[in-house]
Specification:
Layout (H helix, E strand, L loop, with lengths): L2 H7 L12 E4 L3 H17 L5 E5 L2 H14 L4 E5 L14 H15 L9 E6 H5 L5 H5 L3 E3 L7 H10 L3 E2 L8 E5 L2 E4 L8 E6 L2 E8 L6 E5 L2 E3 L9 H15 L7 H7 L21 H4 L4 E5 L2 H26 L15 H4 L3 H10 L3 E3 L11 E4 L3 E2 L4 H6 L3 H14 L3 E6 L2 H13 L5 E4 L2 H5 L6 E5 L6 E3 L2 E5 H5 L16
Parallel strand pairs: 1-14, 1-15, 2-4, 2-13, 3-4, 6-7, 13-14, 17-19, 17-21, 18-19
Antiparallel strand pairs: 5-12, 7-8, 8-9, 9-10, 10-11, 16-20, 20-21
Helix pairs in contact: 2-3
Length: 499
Amino acid sequence: MNAHMDGNLQTLDTLFDHEDAVTLTGVPDGYRALVLARMASIATGGGARGLVHIAADGQQLAGLVSALEFFSPWLEILELPSWDCLPYDRVSPSAEIIARRIHALGFLANKAHRSEKPLLVLTTANALIQKNAPAEVMAGQAWHLAPGNRIDMDALARWLSENGFERTATVRERGEFAVRGGIVDLYAPGDEDPVRLDFFGDTLDSIRAFDTASQRTTGQLKSISLAPMSEVVLDEKSISRFRRAYIENFGAATRDDALYEAVSEGRRFAGSEHWLPLFYERLDTVFDYLDGFRFAVDHHVEDAVARRHEQIVDHYEARRQAVSETQGKAADGATPYKPVEPGSLYLGEEEVHDRLKAVGAATLSPFQPVESQGLKVIDLQGRPGRSFAAERASGTNVFEAVVQHAMAERGEGQKIAIAAWSAGSRDRLKQVLAEHGMERLEAIGEFAALENMDPRQTALAVLPIEEGFRIPGLTVICEQDILGDRLVRRSASMSCSQI
C-alpha cells in the first residue's frame, strides 16, 4: 500500500488497545472492505480469534464478500447468514442457507481452532438477533470421512436421517441419500456434486463424486466432511425434550397436530426450525459463539435490529391471534400453528444493544466526524466518490468528464482505479475510455497489483461496489458513478434475509 493509503489506515493499529467503543467515520461503502481487512489483521495479531463484522442486511453482506476478494484475497472469510424465511414461517430455511450456517456455527463452536490466516466473520443484523442450537451440539455435528475409515453403515444412515437428510431410492437432489448394498450415495448441501461411498465390509473403500443425471462417476475424493441438513437434530433425546416442552407450552397435542405427530415419529417437518427452543434445554446467541472476537458493526445495525424485532412481534401476534380465534384447531386442513414466545427464539432490542456495548463494538460510518461528548471518533478520511449524474442529465459527454476528472485527481497525487461490475463491463469501459483519451489503462485482478502500478497508469478492476470512493492516495471511480446503472445486473431476486 502506498504511503498515503497506508498512513491513513495506520490510525487503526491501536484501535483494540482499549475497551471503549469507537466510531470510525469517513468509511463509505466501497472503502469498507479495505478497512475491515486491516481491522481483522490487527485483531488477530493482537490475540483475538478474529474480527466480526455485522452488516445491516444480506445485500450489504454479499457486496462485502465480493469486494474483499479483490482487496484481501489473503483473508479467511466466514459467512454466517440469517434464515432466509420470515419469522414464524411454515417453511424451513433453504438447504444452502442451512449448510452455510452449520458450517460457520460448527467452525465457531470449536473454540480451540485457530485460523492460520486473519479471520473475518461476516454476519447480519437478522442473524445477530437469531438464537441458535447450543455450541456444543454444533461442534460435534460434523462427520469427517476418508477411505480406510471403519464405519458402521447403519450408524451412518441413522445419522443422516437424524440430521435432516431424506432417504430415497436414487439421489438426485441436495439433502438426499440412498443405501444399496455396500454403497451409500448422498448429496450434501454444501457440495457441488453428490458422492458415492463404497464400502468393503465396514471399511470405507473409496469416495467418488458422480453425476446426478447419468449416475456415473466423475472423480475420486480423498475425504469429505458431512454437516447436518437442519439445525434441528431428531434423536431420541431431542424428540423426548420436544414432546415434553411442547405440552408444557401449548397443552396436550390434538389429533390434527401434524408437527407434534411428525416429530414424535422422528420425521422431519417443514418449518420445524421455528420451534427450535423446544428441542434443546437452551439456545446460544451469536455472541456466545463469537467469544474471543473483536466486533465492528455497520452504523445502521441497531435500526435494522429494531425493524426485525417489530416484524417478529407482528408475526408472533398474528399467529397467536389465529390460534386463539380457532381455539387451537386446524382450519381448512392446515396444521394449527402454535408459536413459541419471541424471547425464546430471538434476542430483544435492549439485549442486542447491551451485548454490543459489552464487547466494545466499533461502529463504521460513511459520514464525516461530528462533535460528540464522550464518544471516541476516528476519521479514516474516506469520502464518497464523484457521481457523474449531472453530466448525464445535461447531455455532457460523461466519458470525457471521467477522463478529465481522473487527470485532475492524478495531478493531486492520487492513483486512479476504475471499478467495473464484471469482466465484460470492464473490457467495454476500457475500450470506451481509451476512445475518449484515457491512456495507459491496465486491467488488474487484485488490490496488490494496484499498489505496485506506475502512478501514470489507470487500473481497471472487477470490483462490484455501488459507488466509488476517495481516500488519500487513491480515487476509485465505479461503473455506476459513470453510467447511473450497471452494465451487468445481479439477479433482482432477494431473499428475506436481505431485506
